[in-house]
Protein: Cytoplasmic protein
Organism: Epibacterium ulvae
Amino acid sequence: MAKPLMAKATAVWLVDNTTISFKQIADFVGMHELEIQGIADGDVAAGVKGYDPIANNQLTHDEIEKAQNSPLHKLRLKFNPAAAGEEKRRGPRYTPLSKRQDRPNSILWLVKFHPELSDAQIAKLVGTTKPTIQSIRERTHWNIANMQPIDPVALGLCKQSELDAIVQKAAAAKAAEGGVMSDDERRKLVSTEQSLEMEAEPKIPTGIEGLETFTLGDAPEKPEAEEEIIDADSFFNLPSGGGDDDDEESKY
């Protein structure tokens, strides 16, 4: 339910100028019933000037009379045609001044880890312009040498749910185009929480690429050497031939 402008000042005016119950006023302005009672007692909103909701086109006399005649009637904010669609206003996301200096780092992170995102999607996510994104993609940004890729969620520039939604949308668009994604791209297209839970795939060092299917065949077994049959008497056979010792023995 939409709330009136200057809710506390409106509550002060209703307390001072109508007999509407505290509960009805509290529901209309979005405050607690005890706060409305405190306004009536002078303990809350002391010195606040009342804000006339009738003069400011937020309530009608008939609506106030209905609420005064029936304690169960809920006040309804008057329809303002000028405010129609105000909550759906389109435009770049507002970024606080304290975080604008971190925005280029978040753009660099998105460009590096989610290249499937378009410039329009990044601009909508972190509230920037297409020329800035293009200069970071082409590394022509004036401060590109000092930039560090930082997750925009960690910087508070967007919510994790928003990042996951836009990444899934990019995945669906790429699938519709029939593009073939690599393993790294497919990992980037899942949510951050799912990606962190996935196990890292083993990678083969570049020096031995192409050898992953190479296997060594079984070396042929060497035939076992035939066992020599050794005669026990051969240990006692002395070498034949005439030596000095034999000549000496024959003299005797």
